[in-house]
Design goal:
about 300 residues, alpha/beta, about 35% helix, globular
Length: about 300
């Protein structure tokens, strides 16, 4: 990628990889952990990386953070060459690994100051805690915090140096549903104050679907598909549906609707089709008792990919 084109691409994409590959060699032979990964992740977005254990997510994180050298391929992180500008890349990225351990005896304030010292920065920690509504826990020891609160402190520690690219590995693990919602709100709130791109690896598909602008699904070291959830669902034959509860079934709409249960009609969620159905119901003097949108879930697509069945 040449200078001018790289700058143009980097202004739109935080991460660009071209056939990025990592092979580990041991006494029992080579293991291909990531194979020919070609990826575009838009700047200032939230991107979700999902897949079974061993799919290559953690290795991908390590490669994109310059913590592992690729065996083959190339990449650009925030416009910087992944192979030759690693030190500059590290200054612009933050990483919260799944196995990060905070010191239980340190307070929240001391923890942030500790990470600030590691990164060689001098932030106003008091203002930071105030901005992210953690001021009441400033003097609380890490060991006395809830799991959800510890996660928030850990994420804030990972971006204490205001990175432009933040990697979060399994941030939702160990959290109850209420704490998950709190952490999701915290991540969104974080992006309101910092111009950054966030990459999340997680098994929690429901949270990923609600949080991420785009997702990528990995299997056996390969990126199977990457894009918006709507695009991915469409490619694998899943559609959102509208279910309408009526006092009696209409006639003349057999091409558009099905009736999965008594008094219920269902149709693919397309605006023109929905308008036609509602207009027909009105013309036939049929009462609409309820309308519910049935959204195809990321879990449905994920299961189909791991069963190896594409449309």
């Amino acid at each position: 990628m040449h200078g001018a084109s790289r700058e143009a691409e980097a202004s739109m994409n935080a991460i660009i990889t071209d056939n990025l590959t990592k092979t580990f060699v041991s006494k029992i032979g080579p293991t291909l952990a990531v194979r020919q990964l070609s990826l575009l992740i838009k700047a200032n977005s939230i991107y979700g990386l999902i897949g079974h254990n061993g799919a290559g997510k953690t290795t991908t994180f390590m490669l994109l953070n310059t913590l592992l050298e690729p065996t083959e391929g190339s990449g650009w992180i925030l416009g910087l060459d992944l192979l030759t500008q690693q030190k500059r890349i590290r200054k612009l990225t933050g990483l919260l690994s799944e196995n990060l351990r905070l010191y239980d005896e340190l307070t929240v304030e001391e923890t942030l100051l500790f990470f600030a010292d590691l990164y060689g920065v001098n932030p106003n920690v008091y203002s930071l805690l105030e901005r992210f509504e953690l001021l009441d826990w400033r003097k609380q020891q890490i060991g006395r915090l809830s799991t959800g609160m510890r996660k928030k402190v850990a994420i804030l520690s990972a971006c204490i140096h205001q990175p432009r690219l933040l990697f979060l590995d399994e941030p939702f693990s160990g959290l109850d549903p209420l704490a998950m919602q709190g952490l999701r709100d915290f991540i969104n709130y974080l992006l309101e104050y910092n111009e950054m791109t966030v990459i999340i690896a997680s098994h929690n598909l429901k949270e990923m679907a609600g949080l991420c602008d785009e997702v990528g699904i990995m299997k056996e070291g390969q990126m199977v598909i990457s894009g918006t959830l709507d695009m991915i669902k469409q490619q694998y034959g899943f559609s959102d549906h509208i279910e309408i509860k009526v006092d009696r079934l209409p006639t003349g709409l057999e091409r558009l609707i099905t009736s999965p249960a008594a008094g219920i009609i269902s149709l693919v969620n397309k605006p023109n089709d929905l308008d036609l159905v509602l207009r027909t119901l009105m013309e036939q003097d049929i009462r609409v008792l309820d309308i519910v949108k049935q959204t195809a879930a990321l879990e449905d697509v994920y299961q189909r990919i791991y069963q190896g069945v594409a449309q």
